Amino acid sequence: MDEFTGLPDLASRAFGGGVVYANDEFFAAADHLVLPAPAGHAPKTFDHKGQVYDGWETRRRREAGHDFALVRLGAPGIVHGVDVDTSFFTGNYPPAASVEAASVEGYPSKDELEAAEWTELVPRSELKGDGSNLFAVADRQRWTHVRLRIFPDGGVARLRVYGEVVPDPALLPKTFDVAAAQYGATVVDCSNMFYGHPQRMLMPGLAQNMGDGWETSRRRDDANDWIIVKLAAPAVLRFADLDTSHFKGNAPGAARLTGRDERTGSEEWVELLPRVALRPDTPHRFKIEKVPAVTHVRLDIFPDGGMARLRLLGDADRGYLKARMA
User: Fold this and answer.
1) Residue 50 is part of a domain; what is its CATH number?
2) Are residues 157 and 181 in the same domain?
3) Residues 201 and 287: beta-carbon distance below 8 Å
4) What range defines the domain where residue 217 resides?
5) Are 155 and 140 a contacting pair, CB within 8 Å?
6) Nearest alpha-carbon partner for 124 in 77, 66, 79
7) What confidence tens digit (pLDDT) does each residue in 11-67 have?
8) What DSSP string describes 208-228?
9) Whole-structure pTM over 0.90, yes or no?
10) Which of 94, 104, 101 is nearest to 122 (CA)?
């Protein structure tokens, strides 16, 4: 796995990403590009335009030029790499593609975006069909939109834009979920993720099912499982939401939260929420009494099991957020 594919997909519909405009989507809608789920395929499934594809597919060009799609990032940020995924497109994938980025605040129209200043992140590069096409990005500016160009036409299943989330602090309230992936929080360490990656707990919205959360294997020792979250910004926490929704016979029996401030250089973990009992299939909210600011939070579950969502509501360091925007 390339190191950047472990980062959040900034373009994902899960964060609110969307296709602002595509010059052609005759065979399949460009909206498929940003769907969170991997592309699927049902062979010999035809509608009035031909084989149905889970991706973006343009008509065959009979004149010079190329096709393109403008994508609004659901989470603006710094792009580390992209995947132009051509899964299931075999005789109809584009031979080449390029990716550009722009930073336009607010809610620009298609015309405003086309008039914006664009920076090339991925130069025109050859693509292979029916698979991932990964490209590392060296530019470390903050972007709000990307433009995918395909040469000259064809089908792309998904466009993944992997990177660091950098929210605009002017659009954030005083107290917000500093453990939210959409604001830049990320899991940096974990004891076990046999059935589900803990980063899912930080995603927007309610968990849809048991597979949309973190679940560990069954422990046969006296230890317990845990994760460490780097918060979106240093913050003083006010409330913690520990949601075991959908986990019934496999919810943890209890949980505890501790935190530390890496800015102090101390490795000491301070108690934020003492060990509390958890119920199966239940959203829990706990008030956090007066505690110091922290940059990292450790969630311990006892002894193992599954958690749907983790929310940590706190007052963030605005100076830190503004510095990231600079």
Assistant:
1) 2.60.120.260
2) no
3) no
4) 171-325
5) no
6) 66
7) 999 999 999 999 999 999 999 999 999 999 988 888 888 888 899 999 999 999 999
8) -STTSSEEPPPP-SS--EEEE
9) yes
10) 101
